[in-house]
Amino acid sequence: MSTDELMSALSQKALALLREDAYKIEQLIQVQMETLTNRRCPLYEEVLDTQMYGLSREVDFAIRAGLIEASEGKEILNKLERNLANLYEALNKQQSE
Amino acid sequence: MSTDELMSALSQKALALLREDAYKIEQLIQVQMETLTNRRCPLYEEVLDTQMYGLSREVDFAIRAGLIEASEGKEILNKLERNLANLYEALNKQQSE
Predict the structure, then answer these.
(1) Rg (CA), chain A
(2) What pLDDT, in 10s, does the model give residues B3-51?
(3) How far is A93 from chain B (nearest CA, A)?
(4) Which SUPFAM superfamilies is this protein grouped with (chains A, B) (predicted)?
(5) Is the CB of residue B77 less than 8 Å away from at least one CB of chain A?
(6) Contacts of residue A10 in chain B, CB cutoff 8 Å?
(7) Which residues of A touch B64 (CB under 8 A)?
(8) Nearest Cβ partner of B57 from A2, A3, A57?
(9) What pLDDT score does A88 carry?
(10) What is the CATH number of domain A3-96?
């Protein structure tokens, strides 16, 4: 294996791990979206925020360690943040109805 | 550079980054230790806990990404946790006096 191949394998591994962790948060958001009929759950939002913070620290570390591009990390976080914003918007709309 | 050298350089970089982050938390603990005469500050403890959580996620990621050994990560976290436990013990002792 050449150094280029090793670097590429490590980067792909790092990206796969980050996407896996992002997917878990995605699932948490989905669950909350599907149970919108239930009343708002502050504990759930706290869990989501904590998970988002944890992922952002992982992404930041992967960038600093030279494993992924800053743009790749930003894309993962941005996508999740949009989903989270949609969830909170839906929750707020429901609450004001 | 051989693949062994690249892997070693990446591991050392990862460890240096984690120790740097651990050092920042260490500093936060020190500041709180030095101001023990002040009254206990729940917000400060919240910040410390959040920082510890963030670091533990970074360490876990570095292990899964194959950059560091599990034992190396554990050592960094254990050392910090001992310091944190000492801080809380000192705070509790002071509070009961």
Answers:
(1) 16
(2) 999 999 999 999 999 999 999 999 988 887 777 655 667 777 888 899 9
(3) 30
(4) EF2458-like
(5) no
(6) 10, 65-67
(7) 17
(8) A57
(9) 82
(10) 1.10.287.750
| Exposure letters A79-94 (e unless 16+ CB within 10 A, then b) | ebeebbeebeeebeee
In this complex, is the C-beta atom of B65 within 8 Å of any C-beta atom belonging to chain A?
yes
- Would you state the structure tokens that stand for residue A48, as one six-digit string? 């989501």
What does the DSSP 8-state code read for residue B94? Answer: H
Token digits for B13? Answer: 């970089």
Tens-digit pLDDT profile for residues A23-82: 999 998 888 777 765 566 777 788 889 999 999 999 999 999 999 999 999 999 999 999
Tokens of A55: 């992922």
How far does the CA of residue B83 sit from the closest CA of chain A (Å)?
Answer: 22
Spell out the domain ranges in chain B.
3-96
Mark yes or no for CB contact B50/A55 under 8 Å: no
Helices (H), B35-69: 42-64
This complex has an ipTM of 0.83
Contact at CB, A57 and B54, closer than 8 angstroms: yes
